[in-house]
Amino acid sequence: MKIGSKMTKNVRSQVINCLRRNKDIFAWNPQDLEGIDPGVITHHLNLDPSIKPIMLALEDHKRVSFITPNRTFCYVTMPFGLKTLVDKIFRLHLGRNMEVYVDDILVKSKEACSHVEDSEETFAVLRKYILKLNPRKCAFGVSEGRFLGFMVTQRGIEANPAKIKAILVKPIPGDTLHLYLSLTSQAISFVLVREENGAQTPIYYISKVLNRAECRYTPIEKMALALVTTARKLRPYLLSCPIGVRTNTPLK
Fold first, then answer.
1. Do 246 and 177 meet the contact criterion of CB atoms below 8 Å apart?
2. In sequence order, which residues have a C-beta less than 8 Å from that of residue 10 and are 6 or more positions away?
3. Which residue numbers delimit the Reverse transcriptase/retrotransposon-derived protein RNase H-like domain (predicted)?
4. Potential cystine with 115: which of 28, 109, 142, 219 (Cβ 3.0-4.6 Å)?
5. How does residue 82 score in pLDDT terms, banded at 50, 70 and 90?
6. What does the alpha-carbon distance between residue 128 and residue 39 come to, in Å, rounded to a whole number?
């Protein structure tokens, strides 16, 4: 188990005390796995008898496998209407203070002081459904981290630097690059693409969640913020390659 090092002393103490109070949520050894009520995990597929099942590729079988008391099974056709267990039990939390993907859980807090409350809320749901966490895969109180191959920070979702390092440190002079900007009421995002032989290849993507003050910006102010954010992130490209900016937001 890991605990973030950038918290204040008071918040760090609260997080540690929270984990101690909820130590029963973690599976410290195989004997701690009590099992889940079958009524919670049983699902029924609402299928039209005329629909022909879609076969799953062999390499995807392991991604839809599940464990029973006797052995491990997997689906061989696309499971229509199937929702994962975490989607079902955390339906009231998704998008508010939690994001999930299959069995990966991300608890998010807007303020460090509310992280303990959000964690306690998550632990209560896990305890209700007798679910356990693997302490070796848990990190609490971190301000940024990798989730599903991306970097999740206070700024939003960004590409993992380890995966795009070669592109970032070695921009190719003379490349034709295009920057696409997108604005919404609560976020700004952009994607940088390289054009070669008439085809465009994405090479950098950034999404930034706006704070309360930034949400009140006018469209032109949000566009200016997007350009400033872009200039800070793409400095190596700006210094070596001409970049055309494309957006559907009126600039006048």
1. no
2. none
3. 166-243
4. 109
5. very low
6. 13
Provide the strand spans (E) within the chain: 2-3, 65-67, 72-74, 98-101, 104-107, 139-140, 145-147, 150-153, 156-159, 176-183, 187-196, 199-209, 243-246
pLDDT over 70 at 105, yes or no: yes
Q: How far apart are CA 78 and CA 30, in angstroms?
A: 31
Q: Is 27 helix (H, G, I), strand (E, B) or coil?
A: coil
* Cα Rg of the chain, angstroms: 23
The whole-chain average pLDDT of the chain stands at 78
CA angle 14, 17, 22 (to 5 degrees): 125
- Please say whether the beta carbons of 118 and 128 come within 8 A: no
